[in-house]
TrEMBL record:
<keyword id="KW-0812">Transmembrane</keyword>
<feature type="domain" description="Peptidase M50">
    <location>
        <begin position="10"/>
        <end position="364"/>
    </location>
</feature>
<dbReference type="Pfam" id="PF02163">
    <property type="entry name" value="Peptidase_M50"/>
</dbReference>
<dbReference type="InterPro" id="IPR036034">
    <property type="entry name" value="PDZ_sf"/>
</dbReference>
<keyword id="KW-0862">Zinc</keyword>
<feature type="transmembrane region" description="Helical">
    <location>
        <begin position="99"/>
        <end position="120"/>
    </location>
</feature>
<dbReference type="GO" id="GO:0008233">
    <property type="term" value="F:peptidase activity"/>
</dbReference>
<keyword id="KW-0472">Membrane</keyword>
<keyword id="KW-0482">Metalloprotease</keyword>
<keyword id="KW-0645">Protease</keyword>
<comment type="similarity">
    <text>Belongs to the peptidase M50B family.</text>
</comment>
<feature type="transmembrane region" description="Helical">
    <location>
        <begin position="387"/>
        <end position="408"/>
    </location>
</feature>
<dbReference type="InterPro" id="IPR004387">
    <property type="entry name" value="Pept_M50_Zn"/>
</dbReference>
<keyword id="KW-0378">Hydrolase</keyword>
<dbReference type="InterPro" id="IPR008915">
    <property type="entry name" value="Peptidase_M50"/>
</dbReference>
<protein>
    <submittedName>
        <fullName>Site-2 protease family protein</fullName>
    </submittedName>
</protein>
<dbReference type="GO" id="GO:0006508">
    <property type="term" value="P:proteolysis"/>
</dbReference>
Length: 416
């Protein structure tokens, strides 16, 4: 039940954010005097609507987005009523049209920023000093987290009855113990522990000194065997090595909370990292198509592949089911930021395409005026329709592929 509740909540949050996107277009267009005839949440048949002034507001039967109808977005629009010629969108200054078209993305960015700030002062944001690379992790003190077993191959998976028991657990070590030496060799960091263990062989006896709750202790155990690449070449070939059956418990907290004022700076820093990550994700989209197809045809789903609204809602359901509300809201932040950036791409039919054309017209008019030639006027959108259809076709196919992968072979963050 909690999973289904999470799915519904996340889907509702997406619907609200998309509706606010359209509201951004509506409010800015009306503020500049443009004529807006329709504002609807959803698509398909009308469920309910009302007329206020010149605009019809309502709800459609298919809750998959929304739309805002601004009269005369292009010179080729033929739905301009007599007397409204001066209020059509394409006649307005380019800066006003830019604000109206960018207002949707700005709304998504605002939702993301507000959510990040709230998280910063409540649940906390990811700690920028938390170790995220192997090199950083190896500088941490050797405070251990016991594994249930030692997996013999170089893989991350659940333990089975065939796997060797953890030597650390057999030696009565506990989660949170800090190892200080192995066979007399001092261990000052997790990296020292790994280096020392690599100097031993599977089946060797290890004499371990540790500190527990401030008190020193010693124990011994027989090391198991696993497969790992060389420490100095993580992408190299794996070979048999000795294993203690422990992981690292970083001493650095994973999250940091801030005061109301300090949260603004933390929000800006986190947003900058999110922007870089979003741009990189967009650049990787073409490379992920084969991985999505592999997932759809029965292969393992790469966690780095794109997800659709369906996949995001399923992850939201998992987050609620596991009481991981921070994950829920971070998903909401990431999705809003991604949608905001995607809508600014200079491609029709998204908002960024209209903005790009408006500024192209302005630049072209400026150049023609400087060289003494007549203004060529507005861009003919009808001539751009073949390119627009190509973008729609590619985007639609990619969306269907992503949705299918999310239904058949979804990404999961928690064991269910």
């Amino acid at each position: 039940m909690s999973y289904l509740l999470g799915v519904v909540l996340f889907a509702l949050a997406i619907l609200i954010s998309v509706s606010l996107h359209e509201a951004g277009h509506l409010l800015t267009a009306k503020a500049f005097g443009m004529k807006v005839t329709k504002f609807f949440v959803g698509f398909g048949p009308t469920v309910w609507s009302f007329q206020r002034g010149e605009t019809e507001y309502g709800v459609k039967g298919i809750p998959l987005g929304g739309f805002c109808k601004i009269v005369g977005m292009t010179p080729q629009d033929d739905d301009v009523e007599p007397g409204d010629e001066s209020r059509v969108m394409w006649r307005y200054p380019v800066w006003k049209r830019t604000i109206v078209m960018a207002a949707g993305s700005v709304t998504h960015f605002a939702l993301a920023l507000i959510t990040i700030w709230i998280l910063a002062v409540s649940a906390g944001l990811p700690n920028p000093d938390f170790p995220t690379t192997d090199a950083q992790a190896r500088q941490e003190p050797a405070v251990i987290q016991l594994s249930d077993c030692v997996v013999p191959e170089n893989a991350v998976r659940a333990c089975t009855s065939a796997d060797a028991a953890s030597p650390a657990a057999q030696a009565q070590l506990r989660n949170g113990d800090r190892i200080t030496s192995v066979n007399g060799t001092p261990v000052n960091s997790y990296g020292d522990l790994l280096t020392t263990l690599r100097g031993l062989k599977p089946g060797d006896t290890a004499q371990i000194a540790y500190v527990r709750d401030g008190q020193p202790g010693t124990t011994s155990t027989v090391l198991a065997q696993t497969q790992r690449p060389p420490l100095d070449n993580p992408t190299g070939a794996a070979a048999p090595v000795a294993a203690l059956g422990v992981g690292l418990v970083p001493s650095t907290p994973t999250r940091v909370t801030y005061g109301p004022v300090g949260a603004f700076g933390a929000t800006a820093d986190f947003t900058g990292e999110l922007a870089v990550g979003t741009v990189k994700a967009l650049q990787r989209l073409p490379q992920k198509v084969p991985a999505l197809w592999t997932a759809l045809t029965g292969g393992e789903r790469d966690v780095d592949t794109p997800i659709s609204v369906v996949g995001a809602s399923r992850l939201g359901g998992e987050a609620v089911e596991n009481n991981a509300w921070l994950v829920f809201f971070m998903l909401f932040v990431s999705l809003n930021f991604f949608i905001g950036v995607f809508n600014l791409l200079p491609l029709l039919p998204v908002d960024g395409g209209h903005i790009a054309i408006a500024w192209f017209e302005r630049a072209r008019s400026w150049v023609y005026a400087r060289i003494g030639r007549a203004d060529p006027g507005r861009v003919d959108y009808l001539k751009l329709m073949p390119f627009t259809y190509v973008v729609i076709l590619i985007g639609g196919a990619f969306t269907l592929l992503t949705i299918a992968a999310d239904v058949v072979n979804p990404i999961t963050l928690f064991s269910r």
